[in-house]
Amino acid sequence: ANSKVLSMVFDVNTYFAGAAHPNHNTFSMNIDLEQNQELTLDDFFVSGKNYIAKLSTTTIAEIRANPNDGHESETREWDEEWLERGAGPNEINFHTVTIAPEGFYIEFDPYDIDAYAYGSTEVVVPYAQLSGYVSPRVFILIK
């Protein structure tokens, strides 16, 4: 948050009787405080470019580059099909994205890209890795 933008992640926990464990889901809201407007993924990227495909490949590369995601005691091996489906080029996969000075924070819920036991996975995608795709508006908002 700053005087121009507010980025929030909401964590929703649900439990149904008889379930083995609760489920955790997230969603985000990014608000342009100067224009009093909720921002969407489309607002973060240059119009006319296939940003979802670029965001997907960059996010998957970041996940593979940091396989343990804070689980230092174990070596994490990704199920490639699960990872490609859950972080693939589909806008619904990017339901929890916030902006920060260092880049986009993307959160994947349990079962999105891996087993429940691994919990949520958070990825930071630096803006430089999306060069030519990020809208100039993002850089105005984060300053």
Topology (elements, then pairings):
Blueprint: E1 5-14, E2 23-32, E3 37-39, H1 41-44, H2 51-65, H3 80-86, E4 97-100, E5 103-108, E6 121-126, H4 136-142
Features of the shown structure:
three-stranded antiparallel β-sheet; about 140 residues
Describe what this molecule looks like in 3D:
With 143 residues, the protein is α+β, with helices and mostly antiparallel strands. 23% of the residues lie in helices and 27% in strands. It contains four helices and six strands, in the order E-E-E-H-H-H-E-E-E-H. It has helices at residues 41-44, 51-65, 80-86, 136-142, and strands at residues 5-14, 23-32, 37-39, 97-100, 103-108, 121-126. The strands form two sheets. The chain has a three-stranded antiparallel beta sheet. A hairpin with a 4-residue loop joins strand 2 (23-32) and strand 3 (37-39). It is globular. The termini are close together. 21% of the residues are buried.
